[in-house]
Design brief:
The protein has about 300 residues and is an alpha/beta fold. Helices cover about 45% and strands about 10% of the residues. The protein has a domain of about 210 residues: Aldolase class I (TIM Barrel), CATH 3.20.20.70.
Length: about 300
């Protein structure tokens, strides 16, 4: 898999009875592909993986793989607290037809560097699929240190890392440390154009669900080295990233999608839906970049 470009973190539309809304999810997949995204990432943080049972997780990925029909790669989240369960999930994702694994560590008790390494290495050993490492120190109990990232970069099918810290300098440190063995992509907490400038290959982020065409345009401008144009677009998009940082992740993106006509519902309780202030903020950010018509 030639991992690069824009991979939207898909929401998980689930109704009040716990049933995945397959039709709306499939429609979103079709529209994102039509908008030019380079891949799809179900069961990231925006996909509320921590709030879904296994049957719901599996169904979300089945719908995405079926709807994608091989047009773009599907890199699905695998998240667990134990190695045995993470390996089981990875094999299930391979059987469903995913093209890659987004490896996420859920931890309750603190883990040593060796424990963190062993978890991700075990996922890579469980499947021949490419593995993208996920690190988000804002939410995770155990993070990937630079030495652990270095060790994991030497595993053949560990392909890339998506870092959701707010420290772009850490991304440059990772790029320098892995010496080309691992691709690096940004999250919405980073300024994607800046990450591309220092050697990143794209970004995996929830906002790309609601501004896919603009996200793809930004990637293309960065790839082509058209930095003044890229930064002009990045400046207009940044308000959306800021809104995403200030409000519940799934509520923000689900709220934006509802404004665009996708009946994806609200975040799973006990998460709160997007507040009135949040709705106004998201709507304004979408209007600025042409992802919603101005209200007149």
């Amino acid at each position: 898999m030639d991992f690069h470009g824009v991979y939207p973190y898909l929401v998980s539309p689930v109704d009040s009875d716990g049933i995945v809304r397959a039709e709306v999810l499939a429609r979103l997949v079709d529209d994102l592909i039509a908008a030019g995204v380079h891949g799809l990432a179900p069961l990231g943080s925006t996909g509320e993986f921590a709030y879904l049972d296994w049957g719901q997780r599996r169904r979300v990925v089945e719908v995405v793989v079926e709807a994608a029909r091989g047009r773009v790669p599907v890199v699905a989240g695998v998240a667990a607290t134990t190695i045995v369960e993470a390996q089981r999930q990875a094999r299930e994702m391979q059987a469903i037809g995913c093209d890659g694994i987004l490896a996420i560590l859920e931890a309750y008790f603190p883990l040593s560097d060796d424990g963190v390494h062993d978890y991700f290495a075990a996922i890579a050993a469980a499947t021949p699929l490419p593995v993208v490492l996920y690190t988000n120190p804002n939410f995770q109990r155990a993070d990937l240190s630079l030495p652990v990232i270095d060790r994991l970069s030497r595993i053949d099918n560990v392909l890339a890392i998506k870092d959701a810290s707010t420290n772009t300098g850490r991304l440059l440190s990772i790029i320098n440390r892995v010496e080309g063995r691992l691709k690096v992509c940004a999250a919405s907490a980073h300024i994607p154009a800046c990450v591309m400038l220092i050697g990143g290959v794209g970004w995996m982020a929830g906002p790309a669900c609601i501004v896919p065409r603009q996200s793809v345009e930004l990637y293309t401008l960065c790839r082509d080295g058209r930095w003044p144009e890229a930064m002009a677009l990045q400046t207009r998009l940044w308000d959306l990233n800021q809104a995403f940082a200030r409000h519940n992740l799934a509520a923000c993106i689900k709220g934006g999608l509802v404004m665009q006509g996708y009946e994806v519902g609200e975040p799973l309780p006990p998460q709160a839906p997007l507040s009135a202030a949040g709705q106004a903020e998201v709507r304004a950010a979408l209007e600025v970049v042409g992802a919603l018509p101005p209200r007149g």
